[in-house]
Amino acid sequence: MGKIDETKSGKISIRNVTKVYDPDGANVMALDDFSLEIDSGDFIAVVGPSGCGKSTLLNILAGFDTLTEGQIVLDGKNLASIETIPKPGNDRVVVFQQGALFPWKTVMENITYGLIKSGSTDLDEIEARAREFLKRSGNLEEIANVYPAQLSSGMQRRVEIIRAIINDPKLLLLDEPFRAMDTVNKAKMHQHLLKTYQENKKTILFITHDLEEALFLADRVIVMTTRPGKMKLDIQVDIPRPRDQTILASDAYLELRKKTVFAVREEAQKAFERGEREMA
Amino acid sequence: MIRNQYITTSLGIFGFVVLWFFSVEYLPVKAFNRLPDPVEVIFEWFSTDPYYGISIFVPDYYVHIFYSTYRALVSFLLAVLVGVPLGIFMGWRPKFHDYAYALIGLLRPVPPLAWVPIAILIFPGVEPAVIFVTFLVAFFATTMNTLVGVKAIPEDYFRAAACLGAKPSDILKDVIIPGAMPSIFTGLQIAMGAAWFSLVAGEMIAAQYGLGFIIWEAYNLIQYPTIVIGMITLGLAGYISSVLVRLLGQRLMSWRVSKLGLED
């Protein structure tokens, strides 16, 4: 388990969460009585086919969406319930699937945005901090005054992760951030994310449809059923950190993969068949 | 092969002038033979003593240009001042959008000329009436493009800003306005063009000065080369103003740069 410091915050309790879209119309159940306890500093990956409700879960955690039943508690405080109006905040920052750096702000302006909005006024201090993060992310200081359009997609992702982490959030929400990348860049980003996690030990919820990626990165992998989203498997990944590519050929990794791959395939197949039925 | 844009562009214009010359001089069509050929127009335009009274050496020529430019500019600026905030507000507040959209949707297709009688009735004198008609067209183009621009901003930018602690006023300043900027400037370029064409229509009907007035008066007085001089001048004015808007847009949106080839 990635738990290192008992006093650290970022403990999440997802209790019997149900989400129904359009309750009086089509009645699509995205999440069905979903519960999950996440320890502070844990790296959790949620795997499932598209339409399994994993993005719904992320949206509810981020405060973008409401829930229909249940409750989510973050560090003992209510985060989402039927009565709460959803509200995003910089204690739960999202890194988006398509990338959401503001194209009209420089790398530096993007990274410092959250700190400035939360009331930091010492611009020199903030920028020094941002530079430190850029430096630790593979000597990226020289891109501080560049606009995102000038960066490669890998660099953009790294900057977006910095923009999230610099706010010291309790929870980092990653919504399939490497989905559109080729294999080489994806592998680089995995190494980078592992390093970042090692250095910051934030609670991470990583959404993906890629089981290999999930097992490689996370302490715990949740496999979800296709709609309505329920927990199908809850797997502890007892592979020691720091991790690198060599674990991909280790017995422990292959054993875990063997245990899970069919469960994931089965749900993907079900999702595919449902898609065909809905098309017909 | 190296493509030189200036050469091809010049060749295109030259080809058109040649075609114009031959269709006026040699095409066996009566209606064409009445028209001035390019040589006649250019001689008149650059003459120190123009036969029909309008050339680059005549102060009156610049008075007409000044009036038209002044009207186009005032109308355009009014359209920007009203249209951009309105478009942004409609995109920002769905309820306000519902109030205003049908009204704008119904008024927009009304051709500018149809407004002229009402405009003359509402406003004291010709000047504000012409400006009003010109303003209307530019205003619709500006408002609609601004609205489209706000609506086209990806949801993730709003969410990212909210995650990072932005208040609604921050969202307006940091997401909506910069995010809609490319489309706003597309709208401004269209508005600038639209301002010129409705301006000329207005000037033809109700004005004593301006390029539209020159063209109409030259037609009535059978001064055909002057018609073409007025048309060419309008073309140039429209083109230059559109380029200026585009350059301003590029300056304000330096973030729209393509990749410099930075790789990791």
Please outline the helices and strands:
The complex is a heterodimer of chains A (280) and B (264).
Chain A: E1 12-21, E2 28-38, E3 43-47, H1 54-62, E4 69-74, E5 77-80, E6 92-95, H2 107-117, H3 123-136, H4 153-165, E7 171-175, H5 183-200, E8 203-208, H6 211-217, E9 220-224, E10 231-236, H7 251-279
Parallel strand pairs in A: 3-8, 3-9, 6-7, 7-8
Antiparallel strand pairs in A: 1-2, 1-4, 4-5, 9-10
Chain B: H1 5-25, H2 30-33, H3 38-45, H4 59-92, H5 94-107, H6 112-122, H7 126-151, H8 155-163, H9 168-205, H10 211-220, H11 224-252
Helix pairs in contact in B: 3-11, 4-5, 4-7, 4-9, 4-10, 6-7, 7-9, 8-9, 9-10, 9-11, 10-11
Give me some keywords for this one.
heterodimer, A: 280 residues, alpha/beta, Rossmann fold, 2 domains, six-stranded mixed beta sheet, four-stranded antiparallel beta sheet, 7 helices, 22% strand, globular, B: 264 residues, mainly alpha, MetI-like fold
What does the model show?
The complex is a heterodimer of chains A (280) and B (264). Residues 1-6 of chain A have low confidence and may be disordered. Chain A folds into two domains: 12-91 and 171-279, Rossmann fold (3-Layer(aba) Sandwich), CATH 3.40.50.300; 102-168, no CATH class. Chain A is globular. In chain A, α2 packs across α3 and α2 packs parallel to α4. Chain A is built from seven helices and ten strands. In chain A, strands 6-7-8-3-9-10 form a six-stranded mixed β-sheet, with helices on both faces. Chain A has helices at residues 54-62, 107-117, 123-136, 153-165, 183-200, 211-217, 251-279; strands spanning 12-21, 28-38, 43-47, 69-74, 77-80, 92-95, 171-175, 203-208, 220-224, 231-236. Chain A is an alpha/beta fold and 280 residues long. Chain B is globular and about 70 Å long. Chain B is mostly helical and 264 residues long. Chain B has helices at 5-25, 30-33, 38-45, 59-92, 94-107, 112-122, 126-151, 155-163, 168-205, 211-220, 224-252. Helix content of chain B is 77%, strand content 0%. Chain B has a single domain (37-250), classed as MetI-like fold (Orthogonal Bundle). In chain B, α4 runs antiparallel to α9. Chain B has eleven helices and no strands. The chains are: A alpha/beta (280), B mainly alpha (264). Chains A and B meet through β6, α2 and α4 of A and α8 and α9 of B.
